[in-house]
Amino acid sequence: MAHVPTANGTAMTGATSLVKSLEAAKVDVMFGIPGGAILPAYDPIYDSTIRHILVRHEQGAGHAATGYAQVTGRAGVCIATSGPGATNLVTPLADAAMDSVPLVAITGQVPSVAIGTDAFQEADIRGITMPFTKHNFLVTNPDDIPRVIAEAFHIATSGRPGPVLVDIAKDALQKQTSYNWPTSIDLAGYKPQTQPNKGAINDAAALIAQSAKPIFYVGGGVIKANAARELLELAQLLGAPVVTTLMARGAFPDSHPLHLGMPGMHGTVAAVTGLQKADLLITLGARFDDRVTGKLSTFAPNAKVIHADIDPAEIGKNRYADVAVIGDLRETIKALIPALTATLAKGRADLSPWLASVNKLKATYPLGYDTPADGALSPQFVIERLGKICGPDTIFAAGVGQHQMWASQFISYEKPRTWLNSGGAGTMGYAVPAAMGAKVGAPDTTVWAIDGDGCFQMTNQELVTCALNNIPIKVAIINNESLGMVRQWQTLFYDSRYSNTSLESKRVPNFPMLAEAMGCVGLSCESPADVDATIEKAMSINDQPVVVDFRVHRDAMVWPMVAAGTSNDEIMIARATAPDWDSQEL
User: Fold this and answer.
1) Which of 109, 257, 272, 310 has the largest count of CB atoms under 10 Å?
2) pTM of the predicted model as reported, rounded to 2 decimal places
3) Catalytic residue chosen out of the listed positions 428, 436, 485, 561
4) Is there a single domain that holds both residue 202 and residue 175?
5) Does the pLDDT of residue 13 top 50, yes or no?
Protein backbone atom coordinates (compact mmCIF):
# COMPACT_ATOMS: atom_id res chain seq x y z
CA MET A 1 0.00 0.00 0.00
CA ALA A 2 1.55 3.28 -1.12
CA HIS A 3 1.92 6.04 1.42
CA VAL A 4 -0.30 9.05 0.79
CA PRO A 5 1.02 12.17 2.55
CA THR A 6 -1.34 13.61 5.13
CA ALA A 7 -2.35 17.23 4.56
CA ASN A 8 -1.19 19.73 7.14
CA GLY A 9 -3.97 21.05 9.34
CA THR A 10 -5.79 17.71 9.49
CA ALA A 11 -7.39 17.04 12.89
CA MET A 12 -6.43 13.80 14.63
CA THR A 13 -5.20 12.40 17.93
CA GLY A 14 -1.61 12.80 19.01
CA ALA A 15 -1.15 9.06 18.47
CA THR A 16 -2.30 9.30 14.87
CA SER A 17 -0.10 12.36 14.43
CA LEU A 18 2.86 10.29 15.68
CA VAL A 19 2.25 7.52 13.15
CA LYS A 20 1.62 9.98 10.31
CA SER A 21 4.87 11.73 11.25
CA LEU A 22 6.79 8.46 11.11
CA GLU A 23 5.29 7.81 7.70
CA ALA A 24 6.29 11.31 6.60
CA ALA A 25 9.84 10.53 7.78
CA LYS A 26 9.73 7.59 5.33
CA VAL A 27 9.98 4.91 8.01
CA ASP A 28 9.25 1.52 6.48
CA VAL A 29 9.76 -0.73 9.51
CA MET A 30 9.94 -0.47 13.28
CA PHE A 31 10.60 -2.98 16.01
CA GLY A 32 8.70 -2.84 19.27
CA ILE A 33 6.36 -4.09 21.99
CA PRO A 34 3.15 -2.35 23.12
CA GLY A 35 2.31 -1.51 26.72
CA GLY A 36 0.06 0.81 28.68
CA ALA A 37 1.69 4.20 28.10
CA ILE A 38 2.41 3.67 24.40
CA LEU A 39 -0.82 1.77 23.70
CA PRO A 40 -2.67 4.73 22.13
CA ALA A 41 -0.05 4.74 19.35
CA TYR A 42 -0.63 1.08 18.55
CA ASP A 43 -4.18 1.68 17.35
CA PRO A 44 -3.14 3.82 14.34
CA ILE A 45 -0.13 1.55 13.80
CA TYR A 46 -2.73 -1.13 12.97
CA ASP A 47 -3.69 0.84 9.83
CA SER A 48 -0.25 2.21 8.99
CA THR A 49 1.89 1.57 5.92
CA ILE A 50 4.80 0.97 8.32
CA ARG A 51 5.66 -2.65 9.03
CA HIS A 52 5.74 -3.23 12.76
CA ILE A 53 7.68 -6.26 13.97
CA LEU A 54 6.61 -7.49 17.39
CA VAL A 55 9.79 -8.51 19.19
CA ARG A 56 10.07 -10.61 22.36
CA HIS A 57 12.16 -8.12 24.37
CA GLU A 58 12.77 -4.41 24.01
CA GLN A 59 16.53 -4.97 23.94
CA GLY A 60 15.90 -7.06 20.83
CA ALA A 61 13.95 -4.15 19.32
CA GLY A 62 16.84 -1.77 19.89
CA HIS A 63 19.53 -4.06 18.49
CA ALA A 64 17.32 -4.97 15.53
CA ALA A 65 16.90 -1.27 14.75
CA THR A 66 20.68 -0.95 14.96
CA GLY A 67 21.28 -3.88 12.60
CA TYR A 68 18.78 -2.39 10.15
CA ALA A 69 20.53 0.98 10.33
CA GLN A 70 24.01 -0.45 9.93
CA VAL A 71 23.03 -2.31 6.76
CA THR A 72 20.85 0.34 5.12
CA GLY A 73 22.45 3.57 6.34
CA ARG A 74 18.96 4.79 7.30
CA ALA A 75 17.73 5.47 10.81
CA GLY A 76 16.48 2.38 12.63
CA VAL A 77 13.31 2.77 14.68
CA CYS A 78 12.28 1.03 17.88
CA ILE A 79 9.26 1.62 20.08
CA ALA A 80 8.50 0.70 23.69
CA THR A 81 6.27 1.59 26.57
CA SER A 82 7.21 3.46 29.74
CA GLY A 83 9.14 2.19 32.76
CA PRO A 84 10.74 -1.20 32.15
CA GLY A 85 9.91 -1.07 28.45
CA ALA A 86 11.93 2.10 28.11
CA THR A 87 14.75 1.01 30.41
CA ASN A 88 15.16 -2.18 28.38
CA LEU A 89 16.21 0.11 25.51
CA VAL A 90 19.04 1.63 27.54
CA THR A 91 21.67 -0.90 26.40
CA PRO A 92 20.86 -0.62 22.67
CA LEU A 93 20.87 3.17 22.92
CA ALA A 94 24.26 3.17 24.64
CA ASP A 95 25.51 0.69 22.06
CA ALA A 96 24.29 2.86 19.17
CA ALA A 97 25.89 5.96 20.71
CA MET A 98 29.28 4.26 21.03
CA ASP A 99 29.18 3.03 17.43
CA SER A 100 27.59 6.15 15.88
CA VAL A 101 24.46 4.38 14.63
CA PRO A 102 21.41 6.45 13.60
CA LEU A 103 18.53 5.32 15.79
CA VAL A 104 15.19 6.84 16.77
CA ALA A 105 13.59 5.35 19.86
CA ILE A 106 9.96 6.15 20.63
CA THR A 107 8.83 5.54 24.21
CA GLY A 108 5.54 6.07 25.96
CA GLN A 109 5.49 7.98 29.24
CA VAL A 110 2.93 8.22 32.03
CA PRO A 111 0.37 11.04 31.67
CA SER A 112 1.95 14.47 32.04
CA VAL A 113 0.12 15.21 35.30
CA ALA A 114 1.65 12.06 36.81
CA ILE A 115 5.25 12.73 35.78
CA GLY A 116 7.39 12.97 38.88
CA THR A 117 4.92 11.20 41.17
CA ASP A 118 6.46 7.72 40.94
CA ALA A 119 3.42 6.61 38.99
CA PHE A 120 3.01 3.01 37.86
CA GLN A 121 5.66 2.18 35.23
CA GLU A 122 7.19 5.63 35.41
CA ALA A 123 10.89 6.06 34.66
CA ASP A 124 12.80 9.22 33.83
CA ILE A 125 14.05 7.71 30.60
CA ARG A 126 15.09 11.10 29.31
CA GLY A 127 17.34 11.63 32.31
CA ILE A 128 18.58 8.05 32.24
CA THR A 129 19.62 8.21 28.59
CA MET A 130 20.89 11.78 28.43
CA PRO A 131 24.58 10.75 28.66
CA PHE A 132 24.39 8.44 25.65
CA THR A 133 21.81 9.83 23.28
CA LYS A 134 22.71 12.44 20.73
CA HIS A 135 19.58 14.27 21.86
CA ASN A 136 16.32 13.37 23.54
CA PHE A 137 12.87 14.87 23.87
CA LEU A 138 9.95 14.73 26.31
CA VAL A 139 6.68 15.59 24.56
CA THR A 140 3.67 16.65 26.63
CA ASN A 141 1.88 18.76 24.01
CA PRO A 142 0.46 16.81 21.04
CA ASP A 143 0.96 19.81 18.76
CA ASP A 144 4.73 19.28 19.07
CA ILE A 145 4.79 15.68 17.83
CA PRO A 146 5.40 16.24 14.08
CA ARG A 147 8.13 18.83 14.69
CA VAL A 148 9.88 16.67 17.27
CA ILE A 149 9.79 13.56 15.07
CA ALA A 150 11.18 15.51 12.12
CA GLU A 151 13.94 16.94 14.31
CA ALA A 152 14.71 13.52 15.81
CA PHE A 153 15.36 11.97 12.39
CA HIS A 154 17.37 14.98 11.27
CA ILE A 155 19.59 14.85 14.34
CA ALA A 156 19.99 11.05 14.25
CA THR A 157 21.09 10.95 10.60
CA SER A 158 23.02 14.18 10.10
CA GLY A 159 26.54 15.02 11.24
CA ARG A 160 27.93 12.18 13.32
CA PRO A 161 25.03 9.68 13.38
CA GLY A 162 23.64 8.61 16.72
CA PRO A 163 20.57 7.64 18.75
CA VAL A 164 17.74 10.03 19.57
CA LEU A 165 14.99 9.30 22.10
CA VAL A 166 11.46 10.69 21.87
CA ASP A 167 9.49 10.16 25.09
CA ILE A 168 5.79 11.00 24.72
CA ALA A 169 3.32 11.37 27.59
CA LYS A 170 0.24 9.17 27.27
CA ASP A 171 -2.18 12.08 27.41
CA ALA A 172 -0.32 13.78 24.53
CA LEU A 173 -1.05 10.67 22.48
CA GLN A 174 -4.74 10.68 23.50
CA LYS A 175 -5.54 14.36 22.99
CA GLN A 176 -6.78 15.92 19.77
CA THR A 177 -4.34 17.99 17.72
CA SER A 178 -3.81 19.50 14.31
CA TYR A 179 -1.18 17.65 12.27
CA ASN A 180 1.50 19.91 10.80
CA TRP A 181 4.61 18.30 9.30
CA PRO A 182 7.39 20.92 9.13
CA THR A 183 8.54 22.04 5.71
CA SER A 184 12.08 22.81 6.95
CA ILE A 185 14.28 22.21 9.97
CA ASP A 186 16.53 24.86 11.45
CA LEU A 187 17.96 23.97 14.84
CA ALA A 188 19.81 26.76 16.61
CA GLY A 189 23.28 25.60 17.63
CA TYR A 190 23.17 22.45 15.53
CA LYS A 191 24.93 23.01 12.21
CA PRO A 192 27.14 20.03 11.38
CA GLN A 193 30.03 21.06 9.16
CA THR A 194 30.05 18.83 6.11
CA GLN A 195 32.45 20.67 3.79
CA PRO A 196 36.10 20.55 4.90
CA ASN A 197 38.21 23.68 5.19
CA LYS A 198 40.33 24.15 2.05
CA GLY A 199 43.35 25.27 4.06
CA ALA A 200 43.19 22.15 6.22
CA ILE A 201 42.98 19.97 3.11
CA ASN A 202 46.07 21.63 1.64
CA ASP A 203 47.94 21.27 4.95
CA ALA A 204 47.06 17.59 5.05
CA ALA A 205 48.24 17.08 1.47
CA ALA A 206 51.54 18.79 2.22
CA LEU A 207 52.14 16.67 5.31
CA ILE A 208 51.32 13.47 3.45
CA ALA A 209 53.69 14.28 0.59
CA GLN A 210 56.68 14.73 2.89
CA SER A 211 55.99 11.62 4.98
CA ALA A 212 58.20 8.56 4.44
CA LYS A 213 56.16 6.20 6.63
CA PRO A 214 52.49 7.18 6.29
CA ILE A 215 49.64 4.85 7.15
CA PHE A 216 45.88 5.15 6.77
CA TYR A 217 44.17 4.60 10.13
CA VAL A 218 40.58 3.97 9.01
CA GLY A 219 37.63 3.92 11.39
CA GLY A 220 33.93 3.24 11.12
CA GLY A 221 33.23 6.82 10.10
CA VAL A 222 34.29 5.92 6.55
CA ILE A 223 31.44 3.42 6.35
CA LYS A 224 28.96 5.85 7.94
CA ALA A 225 29.92 8.44 5.29
CA ASN A 226 29.61 5.93 2.42
CA ALA A 227 33.19 6.83 1.51
CA ALA A 228 34.69 3.38 0.79
CA ARG A 229 35.09 4.04 -2.94
CA GLU A 230 36.80 7.37 -2.30
CA LEU A 231 39.08 5.77 0.29
CA LEU A 232 40.20 3.16 -2.22
CA GLU A 233 41.05 5.87 -4.74
CA LEU A 234 42.97 7.90 -2.15
CA ALA A 235 44.92 4.91 -0.85
CA GLN A 236 45.91 3.83 -4.34
CA LEU A 237 46.91 7.39 -5.22
CA LEU A 238 49.33 7.56 -2.31
CA GLY A 239 50.28 3.88 -2.25
CA ALA A 240 50.46 3.80 1.55
CA PRO A 241 49.38 0.90 3.78
CA VAL A 242 45.88 0.81 5.26
CA VAL A 243 44.54 -0.55 8.54
CA THR A 244 40.81 -0.89 9.24
CA THR A 245 39.53 -0.92 12.79
CA LEU A 246 36.94 -3.35 14.14
CA MET A 247 34.18 -0.94 13.13
CA ALA A 248 35.72 -0.34 9.70
CA ARG A 249 36.04 -3.94 8.49
CA GLY A 250 34.94 -3.90 4.86
CA ALA A 251 35.66 -0.19 4.36
CA PHE A 252 38.77 -1.25 2.43
CA PRO A 253 39.02 -4.65 0.72
CA ASP A 254 40.88 -7.25 2.75
CA SER A 255 42.27 -8.67 -0.50
CA HIS A 256 43.95 -5.40 -1.49
CA PRO A 257 47.77 -5.57 -1.28
CA LEU A 258 47.92 -2.31 0.68
CA HIS A 259 45.72 -3.67 3.44
CA LEU A 260 47.53 -4.73 6.64
CA GLY A 261 44.42 -5.92 8.48
CA MET A 262 42.84 -4.81 11.72
CA PRO A 263 44.79 -2.96 14.41
CA GLY A 264 44.19 -3.12 18.13
CA MET A 265 44.14 -5.52 21.04
CA HIS A 266 43.64 -8.51 18.73
CA GLY A 267 44.87 -6.94 15.52
CA THR A 268 47.43 -8.28 13.11
CA VAL A 269 51.10 -7.80 13.90
CA ALA A 270 51.51 -5.83 10.68
CA ALA A 271 48.63 -3.46 11.46
CA VAL A 272 49.57 -2.90 15.10
CA THR A 273 53.25 -2.41 14.31
CA GLY A 274 52.56 -0.32 11.23
CA LEU A 275 50.74 2.20 13.40
CA GLN A 276 53.48 2.10 16.05
CA LYS A 277 56.33 2.73 13.60
CA ALA A 278 54.63 5.20 11.24
CA ASP A 279 55.72 8.81 10.95
CA LEU A 280 52.22 9.94 9.92
CA LEU A 281 48.76 8.65 10.83
CA ILE A 282 46.16 9.63 8.23
CA THR A 283 43.23 9.13 10.55
CA LEU A 284 39.85 8.92 8.84
CA GLY A 285 36.73 8.54 10.98
CA ALA A 286 38.53 6.84 13.87
CA ARG A 287 38.64 7.99 17.48
CA PHE A 288 41.89 6.68 18.96
CA ASP A 289 39.99 4.15 21.03
CA ASP A 290 41.90 2.46 23.86
CA ARG A 291 41.48 -0.93 22.19
CA VAL A 292 43.49 0.40 19.23
CA THR A 293 46.04 2.57 21.01
CA GLY A 294 46.88 0.30 23.95
CA LYS A 295 48.76 2.42 26.49
CA LEU A 296 48.03 5.80 24.96
CA SER A 297 51.29 7.48 25.97
CA THR A 298 53.26 4.89 23.98
CA PHE A 299 51.03 4.82 20.90
CA ALA A 300 52.71 5.73 17.58
CA PRO A 301 55.32 7.83 19.42
CA ASN A 302 57.04 9.24 16.32
CA ALA A 303 53.95 9.91 14.24
CA LYS A 304 52.37 13.17 13.31
CA VAL A 305 48.58 13.02 13.01
CA ILE A 306 46.08 14.10 10.42
CA HIS A 307 42.66 13.61 11.99
CA ALA A 308 39.62 13.88 9.72
CA ASP A 309 36.22 13.52 11.36
CA ILE A 310 32.77 15.05 11.17
CA ASP A 311 32.65 15.38 14.96
CA PRO A 312 34.91 18.21 16.18
CA ALA A 313 34.68 16.78 19.72
CA GLU A 314 36.86 13.85 18.63
CA ILE A 315 39.72 16.06 17.49
CA GLY A 316 42.36 16.18 20.20
CA LYS A 317 40.24 14.16 22.62
CA ASN A 318 42.80 11.38 22.99
CA ARG A 319 45.65 12.39 20.68
CA TYR A 320 46.85 15.80 19.48
CA ALA A 321 46.17 16.39 15.79
CA ASP A 322 48.83 18.21 13.77
CA VAL A 323 46.22 18.78 11.08
CA ALA A 324 42.50 18.68 11.88
CA VAL A 325 39.97 18.32 9.09
CA ILE A 326 36.35 18.72 10.13
CA GLY A 327 33.71 17.58 7.67
CA ASP A 328 31.82 14.73 6.10
CA LEU A 329 34.45 12.09 5.32
CA ARG A 330 33.26 11.50 1.80
CA GLU A 331 33.52 15.20 1.05
CA THR A 332 36.87 15.34 2.85
CA ILE A 333 38.41 12.49 0.85
CA LYS A 334 36.95 13.83 -2.40
CA ALA A 335 38.63 17.17 -1.67
CA LEU A 336 41.89 15.55 -0.59
CA ILE A 337 42.35 13.50 -3.78
CA PRO A 338 42.94 16.45 -6.18
CA ALA A 339 44.88 18.38 -3.55
CA LEU A 340 47.19 15.43 -2.94
CA THR A 341 47.52 14.74 -6.67
CA ALA A 342 48.76 18.29 -7.21
CA THR A 343 51.10 18.15 -4.21
CA LEU A 344 52.62 14.79 -5.09
CA ALA A 345 53.34 16.07 -8.61
CA LYS A 346 55.78 18.58 -7.07
CA GLY A 347 57.69 15.86 -5.23
CA ARG A 348 57.16 13.18 -2.64
CA ALA A 349 58.95 10.88 -0.22
CA ASP A 350 59.95 7.40 -1.38
CA LEU A 351 57.60 4.92 0.31
CA SER A 352 59.23 1.74 -1.01
CA PRO A 353 61.38 1.02 2.09
CA TRP A 354 58.34 1.51 4.30
CA LEU A 355 56.15 -0.74 2.18
CA ALA A 356 58.84 -3.39 2.09
CA SER A 357 59.05 -3.33 5.90
CA VAL A 358 55.32 -3.63 6.57
CA ASN A 359 54.89 -6.25 3.86
CA LYS A 360 57.69 -8.27 5.46
CA LEU A 361 55.78 -8.13 8.75
CA LYS A 362 52.60 -9.15 6.95
CA ALA A 363 54.36 -12.18 5.44
CA THR A 364 56.27 -13.10 8.60
CA TYR A 365 53.35 -12.87 11.03
CA PRO A 366 50.15 -13.89 9.22
CA LEU A 367 47.04 -14.69 11.18
CA GLY A 368 46.86 -18.37 12.03
CA TYR A 369 45.74 -20.90 14.59
CA ASP A 370 46.67 -24.30 15.97
CA THR A 371 44.62 -27.36 15.18
CA PRO A 372 43.63 -29.11 18.43
CA ALA A 373 45.83 -32.16 19.02
CA ASP A 374 42.85 -34.30 20.03
CA GLY A 375 41.05 -33.74 16.72
CA ALA A 376 38.43 -31.44 18.29
CA LEU A 377 36.77 -28.73 16.23
CA SER A 378 38.72 -25.47 15.99
CA PRO A 379 36.49 -22.37 16.28
CA GLN A 380 38.75 -20.45 13.91
CA PHE A 381 38.34 -23.19 11.30
CA VAL A 382 34.55 -23.00 11.55
CA ILE A 383 34.55 -19.23 11.05
CA GLU A 384 37.11 -19.38 8.28
CA ARG A 385 35.00 -21.92 6.39
CA LEU A 386 31.86 -19.82 6.92
CA GLY A 387 33.58 -16.90 5.23
CA LYS A 388 34.89 -19.01 2.34
CA ILE A 389 31.63 -20.83 1.64
CA CYS A 390 29.26 -17.90 2.10
CA GLY A 391 31.28 -15.34 0.11
CA PRO A 392 31.84 -11.57 0.24
CA ASP A 393 28.22 -10.53 -0.25
CA THR A 394 27.10 -12.21 2.97
CA ILE A 395 26.35 -10.04 5.99
CA PHE A 396 27.87 -11.25 9.25
CA ALA A 397 26.71 -9.99 12.65
CA ALA A 398 28.78 -11.04 15.65
CA GLY A 399 28.22 -11.10 19.36
CA VAL A 400 31.01 -10.06 21.70
CA GLY A 401 33.98 -12.09 22.82
CA GLN A 402 36.38 -14.55 21.25
CA HIS A 403 34.02 -15.44 18.41
CA GLN A 404 33.73 -11.73 17.54
CA MET A 405 37.49 -11.40 17.26
CA TRP A 406 37.84 -14.59 15.23
CA ALA A 407 35.06 -13.41 12.93
CA SER A 408 36.89 -10.12 12.42
CA GLN A 409 40.15 -11.97 11.74
CA PHE A 410 39.28 -15.06 9.68
CA ILE A 411 36.53 -13.79 7.38
CA SER A 412 37.63 -11.68 4.43
CA TYR A 413 35.55 -8.51 4.20
CA GLU A 414 35.55 -6.93 0.77
CA LYS A 415 32.59 -4.56 1.00
CA PRO A 416 31.23 -2.06 3.53
CA ARG A 417 28.12 -2.86 5.59
CA THR A 418 28.78 -6.61 5.55
CA TRP A 419 30.23 -6.74 9.08
CA LEU A 420 28.09 -5.78 12.07
CA ASN A 421 29.18 -5.91 15.67
CA SER A 422 29.02 -4.06 18.96
CA GLY A 423 32.39 -2.35 18.97
CA GLY A 424 32.40 0.41 21.57
CA ALA A 425 29.97 -0.97 24.13
CA GLY A 426 30.87 -4.61 23.61
CA THR A 427 27.29 -5.79 24.13
CA MET A 428 26.76 -9.50 24.63
CA GLY A 429 23.45 -10.51 23.05
CA TYR A 430 23.83 -8.15 20.12
CA ALA A 431 24.17 -10.69 17.29
CA VAL A 432 20.79 -12.41 16.93
CA PRO A 433 18.56 -9.29 17.04
CA ALA A 434 21.05 -7.28 14.96
CA ALA A 435 21.07 -10.02 12.34
CA MET A 436 17.27 -9.94 12.40
CA GLY A 437 17.26 -6.20 11.72
CA ALA A 438 19.91 -6.60 9.03
CA LYS A 439 17.86 -9.25 7.26
CA VAL A 440 14.81 -6.97 7.32
CA GLY A 441 16.93 -4.19 5.83
CA ALA A 442 18.54 -6.48 3.22
CA PRO A 443 15.97 -9.25 2.66
CA ASP A 444 17.67 -10.66 -0.44
CA THR A 445 21.06 -11.05 1.24
CA THR A 446 22.24 -14.00 3.32
CA VAL A 447 22.69 -12.92 6.95
CA TRP A 448 24.64 -14.96 9.50
CA ALA A 449 24.82 -14.26 13.20
CA ILE A 450 28.08 -15.58 14.59
CA ASP A 451 27.43 -15.94 18.30
CA GLY A 452 28.99 -17.45 21.35
CA ASP A 453 27.08 -19.82 23.58
CA GLY A 454 27.12 -17.14 26.28
CA CYS A 455 25.88 -14.33 24.03
CA PHE A 456 23.28 -16.54 22.40
CA GLN A 457 21.61 -17.28 25.71
CA MET A 458 20.96 -13.59 26.30
CA THR A 459 18.74 -12.73 23.33
CA ASN A 460 17.92 -15.96 21.46
CA GLN A 461 14.21 -15.42 22.06
CA GLU A 462 14.22 -13.15 18.99
CA LEU A 463 14.46 -16.32 16.90
CA VAL A 464 10.75 -16.68 17.67
CA THR A 465 10.28 -13.23 16.15
CA CYS A 466 12.27 -14.32 13.10
CA ALA A 467 10.30 -17.56 12.70
CA LEU A 468 6.91 -15.85 12.93
CA ASN A 469 7.81 -12.93 10.67
CA ASN A 470 9.58 -14.78 7.85
CA ILE A 471 13.04 -13.43 8.68
CA PRO A 472 15.25 -16.41 7.82
CA ILE A 473 18.56 -15.53 9.43
CA LYS A 474 21.23 -18.14 10.08
CA VAL A 475 23.03 -18.50 13.41
CA ALA A 476 26.39 -20.13 14.01
CA ILE A 477 26.88 -20.78 17.72
CA ILE A 478 30.57 -21.12 18.51
CA ASN A 479 29.94 -23.31 21.51
CA ASN A 480 32.99 -23.67 23.74
CA GLU A 481 30.73 -24.04 26.81
CA SER A 482 32.42 -20.99 28.33
CA LEU A 483 32.44 -17.25 28.59
CA GLY A 484 35.43 -17.64 26.33
CA MET A 485 37.13 -14.24 26.39
CA VAL A 486 36.84 -13.99 30.15
CA ARG A 487 38.20 -17.55 30.42
CA GLN A 488 41.13 -16.53 28.20
CA TRP A 489 41.96 -13.69 30.57
CA GLN A 490 41.64 -16.04 33.53
CA THR A 491 44.08 -18.40 31.80
CA LEU A 492 46.61 -15.66 31.13
CA PHE A 493 46.28 -13.39 34.16
CA TYR A 494 44.53 -15.33 36.95
CA ASP A 495 46.51 -18.60 37.07
CA SER A 496 43.76 -20.53 35.24
CA ARG A 497 41.33 -20.02 38.15
CA TYR A 498 38.10 -20.33 36.18
CA SER A 499 35.71 -18.52 38.48
CA ASN A 500 32.16 -18.59 37.06
CA THR A 501 33.00 -18.81 33.38
CA SER A 502 31.89 -22.38 32.71
CA LEU A 503 28.46 -22.47 31.03
CA GLU A 504 28.17 -26.24 30.42
CA SER A 505 26.49 -25.35 27.12
CA LYS A 506 27.33 -28.66 25.48
CA ARG A 507 25.08 -30.27 28.07
CA VAL A 508 22.32 -27.72 28.80
CA PRO A 509 20.57 -26.36 26.84
CA ASN A 510 20.38 -28.54 23.78
CA PHE A 511 20.68 -25.75 21.23
CA PRO A 512 19.28 -27.63 18.19
CA MET A 513 16.22 -28.70 20.21
CA LEU A 514 15.82 -25.14 21.52
CA ALA A 515 15.97 -23.84 17.96
CA GLU A 516 13.33 -26.35 16.83
CA ALA A 517 11.09 -25.29 19.71
CA MET A 518 11.32 -21.70 18.48
CA GLY A 519 10.28 -22.58 14.93
CA CYS A 520 13.78 -22.81 13.47
CA VAL A 521 15.86 -25.59 11.96
CA GLY A 522 18.42 -26.88 14.46
CA LEU A 523 21.70 -28.45 13.36
CA SER A 524 24.86 -29.49 15.17
CA CYS A 525 28.46 -30.17 14.22
CA GLU A 526 31.46 -31.29 16.24
CA SER A 527 33.77 -32.85 13.65
CA PRO A 528 36.08 -30.87 11.34
CA ALA A 529 35.13 -33.27 8.54
CA ASP A 530 31.46 -32.24 8.79
CA VAL A 531 31.90 -28.45 8.85
CA ASP A 532 31.53 -27.74 5.14
CA ALA A 533 28.53 -30.03 4.70
CA THR A 534 26.81 -28.52 7.72
CA ILE A 535 27.34 -24.96 6.48
CA GLU A 536 26.11 -25.92 3.02
CA LYS A 537 23.01 -27.52 4.50
CA ALA A 538 22.29 -24.35 6.47
CA MET A 539 22.80 -22.29 3.31
CA SER A 540 20.29 -24.44 1.45
CA ILE A 541 17.47 -23.61 3.89
CA ASN A 542 15.99 -20.21 3.12
CA ASP A 543 12.40 -20.42 4.34
CA GLN A 544 13.19 -20.71 8.07
CA PRO A 545 15.81 -19.45 10.47
CA VAL A 546 18.64 -21.96 10.96
CA VAL A 547 20.71 -22.47 14.09
CA VAL A 548 23.94 -24.49 14.00
CA ASP A 549 25.56 -25.61 17.24
CA PHE A 550 29.28 -25.84 16.44
CA ARG A 551 30.77 -27.69 19.41
CA VAL A 552 34.31 -26.39 19.42
CA HIS A 553 37.56 -26.83 21.33
CA ARG A 554 37.27 -25.14 24.71
CA ASP A 555 40.78 -23.76 25.14
CA ALA A 556 41.33 -21.98 21.83
CA MET A 557 42.62 -18.44 22.32
CA VAL A 558 42.57 -15.24 20.33
CA TRP A 559 46.01 -14.24 19.06
CA PRO A 560 47.70 -11.83 18.58
CA MET A 561 46.95 -9.99 21.80
CA VAL A 562 47.92 -6.72 23.42
CA ALA A 563 47.04 -7.05 27.10
CA ALA A 564 44.87 -4.24 28.48
CA GLY A 565 46.90 -1.29 29.70
CA THR A 566 50.12 -2.35 27.98
CA SER A 567 51.93 -0.83 25.03
CA ASN A 568 51.27 -2.04 21.51
CA ASP A 569 54.99 -2.77 21.40
CA GLU A 570 54.27 -5.66 23.78
CA ILE A 571 51.96 -7.47 21.36
CA MET A 572 51.95 -11.23 21.93
CA ILE A 573 51.64 -13.63 19.01
CA ALA A 574 51.25 -16.56 21.41
CA ARG A 575 51.32 -16.83 25.17
CA ALA A 576 54.09 -14.52 26.45
CA THR A 577 55.67 -14.44 22.98
CA ALA A 578 56.38 -11.12 21.26
CA PRO A 579 57.91 -10.57 17.81
CA ASP A 580 61.64 -9.89 17.65
CA TRP A 581 61.53 -6.16 16.91
CA ASP A 582 65.32 -5.89 16.69
CA SER A 583 65.24 -7.95 13.51
CA GLN A 584 62.62 -5.73 11.91
CA GLU A 585 63.90 -2.77 9.90
CA LEU A 586 61.17 -0.29 10.73
Assistant:
1) 109
2) 0.96
3) 485
4) no
5) yes
